[in-house]
Amino acid sequence: MLFKRFLPLFIFAGIFVAFAVGLTLNPREIPSALINKAAPEFSLPSLEGDSIGLSSADLQDPDHIIVVNFFASWCGPCRIEHPALEALGQTDGVKLFGIAYKDRPAHSLSFLKSLGNPYAKIGTDLKGRNAIDWGVTGTPETFILKDGIIRYQHIGPIHAVQMDKIQTVIKELQQ
Amino acid sequence: MRFLLLPIIYLALSLNVAAIGVDKNRLSDPAQESRAQQIMKQLRCLVCQNQSIVESDAGLAVDLRAIVREQIKAGQTDKQIITFMTSRYGDWVLLKPPFKAATAILWLGPLFLLLIGGFFVFRYVRQKPSISTPEPLSPDEEKRLKHILRDSEK
Amino acid sequence: MIAELGHYMLVLALGLAILQAIFPMIGAYRQDGRMMMIGQPAAYGQFLFSLAAFAALTYSYIVSDFSVAVVARNSHSLKPMLYKISGVWGNHEGSLLFWVVFLALFGALVAYFGRGLPKSLRARVLSIQAMVGVGFYLFMLITSNPFERLPNVPFEGNGLNPLLQDPGLAFHPPFLYLGYVGLSVVFSFAIAALIEGKVDPAWARWVRPWTLLAWVFLTIGIVLGSWWAYYELGWGGWWGWDPVENASFMPWLVATALLHSAIVVEKRDTLKSWTILLAIIAFSFSLLGTFIVRSGIITSVHAFATDPERGMFILLFLALVIGGSFLLFALRADKLRAGGLFAPVSRESGLVINNLFLSVAAAVVLYGTLHPLLSDALFGVKSSVGAPFFNLVFGLLMIPLVLVMGLGVHLKWKRAPLKGLGRKLKAITALSLLAGLMTLYVTYGGEIMPVVWMGVGVWLLLSMFQELGSRIKLFQVPFKNSMSRLMRQPRSSWGMSLGHLGFAVGLIGIVATSSWNLEQQKVMNIGESMTIGDYQLTLDDVVAVAGPNYSAVRGIVSVTSTDGNSFIARPESRTYISSPMTTTEGAVETTMSGDLFIVVGDTQTSGRWAMRVYYKPMQVWLWIGSTIMVLGGIFSLSDRRYRIGSPQGKKKTRSVAHAV
């Protein structure tokens, strides 16, 4: 009898706690389903169109941490994160690869020409199907891999303040 | 945080872009197309607010619809197609939550609540009259009672 | 200057609210008449001042005073006047001001109509009403001040979202807020009753009209929103189980349960603690809705600008109000002693069962809405709950609910004989089965559940007619007599009949339009045709059109149906000046058997047009049914028996002789 009367209060208390925690969360952040899973098999043409630009074989590199970045020339935030990508590309023990998402190769090329090309290798995903295999929902998105296994996903542009976190993840993986 | 409003509105209105997408590659077999529609209704448009990929014109939704249709044509079962989506996007892509330990309350809850509620209702509706002695009246109330009885006798 | 005046009015209103919150409560405790009397003038004054503040804000919008921050953010000098005004409440700050004006309004109404109430009850009710108001005033003045000025005045405003420049949507928030805030009155009554330690039938007589009023407003608000979504959003969707939609639906479900529960309190002097709990929960859901929209905690199309700081404030406010109420309930509910009894088969038990299903439905919607958040916050797992879940579970719950509804109206008070019931309902049950079979035949190859729902909906419809028929002794006495009986029915029974009838009509419409709709898409050149169902559509032409603050592309579509009807449809795709967004104004042609919904737009390739057509069977039944429901509510409200007049406060002889 007593329990029944306090039940509404208890239920509300639970909801309140959930709300309080919820305020600290971002409902639009959806964690990747591919964490700790192997990257999908793929083979993408290069921007010039004459050869293979990037394939899953490139991700199997025991000596480096691989960073794969999905970008597009029509993507505004991609411009914002460009300096962060350059820094990543120049980090020791890191190889930065790019995948152009639903972008005309000519446009991607001029985009990289004007901003500078931070990528060691680039593949182009004209129809966006490859991106779907990675669970990508838009650009930019960045994945950090070790030994071909996806270990970390960053959705959205990498702001300067977020570089610390990325660098930490990379360092941990290097050990 | 207010700058978030504009992106949210843009996102919401991506439903209403003047360029209306038209599914050019609908399946010719109506049974297959209807199966496709059923599956698509269960898949969330990941760049929209609470819509399925059937209702949205967003690029990703169009791509995912094409994939569903291709896979049906290729002979995949409903389950295989759903698994294809969840292995890439996680359970979040499903608008109908799968039945798992985590969603047990969600699915079993209603039945549970009905049974418990029903039990209490049953008990309540069947209760025997309780013979309780009424509380004695206070002197004030005694006076009022006398007054009322006197009035009603008139 | 006006804005500063408005700001000042708001602060004054807060001051009065504080007075109204403190003194009447202390006065009721001490039985100090003078302190209790502070309630009324404070309530009237609070209303006047908050209304003045609202007027000041409205004025700023009307004259497009862009030095006021909210006006600059949300308005535009080229907007039509109606939308400049509706823009006042189309944003976070303005809608909060709306909330407090309505809170104060209802407080003033209770002060006025409650002159016959026992003094201490009225004092406590006004006090609690003011306490809620204080929370909102503080929230506004501290975090969301609508009268904030901009140091650099822009030349032009940012313009309102073009989606909101629409009559349906302009009126949707006011009605919704009237509903939400209307529930605050029953909430205050419930808390006052807990504090006083008693609930008697007089209290229930008070709760019913106020709940009914709030319920009517809430229904209108929800239906307006659905109707707007239907014709505005380009695919004829009218309900998406979006978290904010759910946030308006939950209080509606609970208010409906409360309405019925209060009847049992009034008739049998029992089910009291449950009714009080419902009253608290109903308003809690109103507050919850406020939280969800403004805190950024759940993604939704409806969300206002999100801000965790504001979210924190509202959350603490919720904890205080809701947590406090539930605590009070836990401590004081045992003071409410049960009264009369009723048989297991009776109208009362029917109402109790109705409450069971409505409450479970509300709980399901609540949990489904919160599950993603709970899953993320408590377990770190992102889970998604969408329309398929709600449609399935809610739809299943509706079946027993509707059956009990159709059965319950035939049950007598206190004790209802089962035998006569079976005989009464034989005919309509047979007819509904027939209707179900016909539906099955017409939709053969489709799903089975809609057929079941249709049968159930038709059964309810017939049951309501049957009930009315037996009440006026139709076919048992001369027709003229039946008609005069009909006219002499008390308004509240009209209300009951219309309310349930409207629900049945709406239900049938919902089943049809959700289950058997058609869709066709085609990329067309001018002159090409396409077919859908019994209709053939030809794109005759596409013209450019200019509106007051938009430019549009309009399709001229001639439509012919196989039964000879033909008409011209003119769907548009609009681009607004003040923002790069476009909206589709679908052309809707409505008939009783279904709506044809046509949308036209550009394709990527020039010269060709994309046309989408939807056929929605019996869509208009939903709108008609809801209107009938609302009419029923209004009829009941106008019944003198439930008038908010004095419940025989002075005639004590009456209450003693008041036989149950």
What's the quaternary structure here? heterotrimer
First CA to last CA of chain C: what distance? 60 Å
Radius of gyration of chain C: 27 Å
Number of strands of chain A: 7
Which range does the strand content of chain A fall in? 15-25%
Please summarize what this structure is.
Chain A is an alpha/beta fold and 175 residues long. Chain A has helices spanning 2-23, 76-80, 82-89, 105-115, 129-133, 163-174; strands spanning 43-45, 52-55, 65-71, 94-101, 121-125, 141-146, 149-155. The mean pLDDT of chain A is 89.
List the helices and strands and how they pair.
The complex is a heterotrimer of chains A (175), B (154) and C (660).
Chain A: H1 2-23, E1 43-45, E2 52-55, E3 65-71, H2 76-80, H3 82-89, E4 94-101, H4 105-115, E5 121-125, H5 129-133, E6 141-146, E7 149-155, H6 163-174
Parallel strand pairs in A: 3-4, 4-5
Antiparallel strand pairs in A: 1-2, 3-6, 6-7
Chain B: H1 5-13, H2 30-41, H3 59-73, H4 78-89, H5 104-125, H6 139-153
Chain C: H1 2-30, H2 33-37, H3 39-62, H4 69-74, H5 81-86, H6 92-113, H7 119-143, H8 167-196, H9 201-232, H10 243-268, H11 272-295, H12 308-332, H13 347-379, H14 387-408, H15 418-442, H16 449-471, H17 479-488, H18 491-515, E1 518-524, E2 529-532, E3 535-546, E4 550-561, E5 566-569, E6 572-576, E7 582-585, E8 587-591, E9 594-602, E10 609-617, H19 619-637, H20 652-657
Antiparallel strand pairs in C: 1-10, 2-3, 3-4, 4-5, 4-6, 6-7, 8-9, 9-10
